[in-house]
């Protein structure tokens, strides 16, 4: 019996490893677009952010690395030399968007594929541990660091059942996956990643998203923007 094909089969979702690795032109475009969007603000964070880039360069890596496809994950960051334990691996280059207007202006100025990367990489966090939430974005290859945190059996509960509080999860609720080998520490007023153990050349660098991502945020406008940009073709 011949197999009948659907007249208009649903479009398959893009495989994670089909997303291209950003080149230097893409990173510079992101940075220059951010500079234009935030040009008229007096945000002390942005002043320090641009000064740091001007002084130390766009990329905050302090060890040799490469970006390539990570099986089953998409893009990832890999060490290309041995990294001893407690080495400063990366100095963060994070910008932030406090308002929906800022974020929209930024995304609208980018090519679609790059704007979709942005909504994938960006995360919500509070500002200096106060009650003001912002959408944060790393403007270098650290945006491609994959999550090495333990996978929680209750992760889906945190996302789909707001009545459940992630702070009530117990240590035994976490199932080890690929444990993070980077820890975040504050150094001279900026966040840095340090190696939590010896890392071999060729090993993927993994951080813990739960240290910086607020998964229970109330920025509904950001959730809406994420969905909007990923629905575009």
Largest sheet: 3 strands, antiparallel
What are the secondary-structure elements, in order, as H or E? Answer: HHEEEEHHEEEEHEEEEH
Shape: globular
Number of helix segments? 6
Q: Which residues sit in consecutive blocks of at least 5 with pLDDT less than 50? A: 1-17, 151-176
Helix percentage range: 25-40%
The strand order across the widest sheet is 3-11-10
Determine the structural class based on helices, strands and strand pairing: alpha+beta
Structural account:
With 233 residues, this protein is α+β, with helices and mostly antiparallel strands. The chain has six helices and twelve strands. Strands 3-11-10 form a three-stranded antiparallel beta sheet, with no helix packed on it. It has a three-stranded antiparallel beta sheet with strand order 4-6-5. A hairpin with a 6-residue loop joins strand 5 (123-126) and strand 6. Helix 4 crosses helix 6 (220-230). Mean pLDDT is 80; it is low at 1-17 and 151-176.
What is shown here, in short?
The chain has 233 residues and is α+β, with helices and mostly antiparallel strands. The chain is 27% helix and 21% strand.
Set out the fold topology.
Blueprint: H1 24-37, H2 44-56, E1 65-70, E2 74-79, E3 88-91, E4 94-97, H3 100-108, H4 112-121, E5 123-126, E6 133-138, E7 146-147, E8 151-152, H5 155-160, E9 174-175, E10 182-187, E11 190-195, E12 206-207, H6 220-230
Parallel strand pairs: 7-12
Antiparallel strand pairs: 1-2, 3-11, 4-6, 5-6, 8-9, 10-11
Helix pairs in contact: 4-6
């Amino acid at each position: 019996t011949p197999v009948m094909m659907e007249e208009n089969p649903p479009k398959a979702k893009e495989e994670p490893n089909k997303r291209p690795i950003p080149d230097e032109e893409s990173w510079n475009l992101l940075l220059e677009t951010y500079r234009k969007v935030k040009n008229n603000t007096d945000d002390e964070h942005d002043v320090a952010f641009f000064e740091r880039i001007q002084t130390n360069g766009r990329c905050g890596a302090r060890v040799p690395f490469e970006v390539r496809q990570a099986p089953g994950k998409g893009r990832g960051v890999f060490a290309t030399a041995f990294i001893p334990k407690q080495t400063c691996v990366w100095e963060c280059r994070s910008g932030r968007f406090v308002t929906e207007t800022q974020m929209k202006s930024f995304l609208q100025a980018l090519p679609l594929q790059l704007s979709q990367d942005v909504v994938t990489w960006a995360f919500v966090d509070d500002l200096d541990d106060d009650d003001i939430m912002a959408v944060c974005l790393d403007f270098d290859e650290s945006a491609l660091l994959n999550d090495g945190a333990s996978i929680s059996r209750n992760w889906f509960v945190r996302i789909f059942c707001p009545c459940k509080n992630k702070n009530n999860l117990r240590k035994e609720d976490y199932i080890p996956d690929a444990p993070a080998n980077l820890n975040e520490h504050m150094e001279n007023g900026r966040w840095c990643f340090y190696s939590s153990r010896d890392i071999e050349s060729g090993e993927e660098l993994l951080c813990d998203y739960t240290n910086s991502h607020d998964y229970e945020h109330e920025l509904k406008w950001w959730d809406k923007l994420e969905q909007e940009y990923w629905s575009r073709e």
